[in-house]
Design brief:
246 residues, alpha/beta, Spore Coat Polysaccharide Biosynthesis Protein SpsA, Chain A, 7-stranded mixed sheet, 7 strands, globular, Glyco_trans_2-like
Length: 246
C-alpha cells in the first residue's frame, strides 16, 4: 500500500485516560495486521487528562499506520467512535476498546467471517463468551443484555463487546445519538442489514480503571433502550427501482 492509497481496513480506538494501555495495544494491532491487510489505526483521544495524548503523539513517529484525532472536550465513547469512523479512509472499520481487554488478534478472525459472508451482512459483533470482569459487572451485563434482547429482538448475546467489524458506509447511514455504539446490532437490522455474533477472547484490564459504574450503565441503558425501541417501531423500508435503469 502506498502512502496515499486508501487502506482496506481502519481500526478505530476511542480512548480517555488510558496512558498505560496505549503503547501495548498499538503494538498488538500492528502485530495482528501488518503484512496481512492494508490498514490504518485511528485513535480518538476524548480529551484525556493524563499522558495518553503525549504517548500517542510519540508513537506517530514509530508507527506509520497511526493517526491521532483529539476532541476539544470530553464527548463520550459513541461520539469518539463516530469521529474515528468519519475520518477513516478504509471501507471497513474494526473497533477496539482502548483499555486492552479486546484482543487485536481477533480482528483477522472477523475479517475471515466477513469474507465468507453474503453482502447483506454488514456487522460482525464480538461475543465475549468468557468474560474477564468482576462478578458484579458480569451480572449487570447479563441482566442488561437479557432486557435489551427481549425488547429489541436483535438476536445478539453481547452488544457491549468493543471489538466489532462493520462497513463504514452502513455505519454512517445509521441515526446518531450518544451511547449508540451499544445498540449497533439493532440499528443495523433496522436499516435492513444482517448481523452476526462471533465468539472472541476477552482479557482482564491490565492497567487503569473503568470509566463507568454499573448504576450509570443501567440508568443510561434503560433510557436509550426506550428510544431505540421507538426508532425500530417507526422504521419503514421498501425496495427501490429506477425507471430505465439496466
Amino acid at each position: 500500500m502506498t502512502q496515499d492509497a486508501a487502506p482496506a481496513l481502519s481500526v478505530v480506538v476511542p480512548v480517555f485516560n488510558e496512558a498505560d494501555n496505549v503503547r501495548p495495544l498499538v503494538g498488538e494491532i500492528v502485530t495482528a495486521l501488518r503484512g496481512r491487510i492494508g490498514f490504518e489505526i485511528v485513535y480518538v483521544d476524548d480529551a484525556s487528562r493524563d499522558g495518553t495524548l503525549a504517548i500517542l503523539d510519540a508513537l506517530r513517529a514509530e508507527v506509520p499506520e497511526l493517526r491521532v484525532l483529539v476532541h476539544a472536550s470530553q464527548s463520550g465513547q459513541s461520539t469518539a467512535i463516530r469521529t474515528g469512523v468519519r475520518a477513516a479512509r478504509g471501507a471497513w472499520i474494526a473497533t477496539l476498546d482502548g483499555d486492552g481487554q479486546n484482543d487485536p488478534a481477533d480482528i483477522p478472525l472477523l475479517l475471515r467471517e466477513r469474507d465468507a459472508a453474503p453482502a447483506t451482512l454488514k456487522l460482525f459483533a464480538g461475543w465475549r463468551t468468557e468474560r474477564r470482569d468482576s462478578g458484579s459487572k458480569r451480572w449487570a451485563s447479563k441482566w442488561a443484555n437479557a432486557i435489551r434482547s427481549r425488547l429489541l429482538r436483535d438476536d445478539t448475546p453481547d452488544t457491549g463487546c468493543g471489538i466489532k467489524l462493520f462497513e463504514r458506509e452502513a455505519f454512517l447511514d445509521l441515526p446518531y445519538f450518544d451511547h449508540m455504539h451499544r445498540f449497533l446490532p439493532a440499528l443495523m437490522q433496522r436499516a435492513g442489514w444482517q448481523v452476526k455474533s462471533v465468539p472472541v477472547r476477552h482479557r482482564p484490564r491490565a492497567a487503569g480503571c473503568s470509566k463507568y459504574n454499573n448504576l450509570q450503565r443501567a440508568w443510561v441503558g434503560l433510557r436509550d433502550l426506550r428510544g431505540v425501541a421507538w426508532l425500530i417501531a417507526r422504521s419503514r423500508r421498501t425496495a427501490v427501482r429506477e425507471l430505465g435503469a439496466p
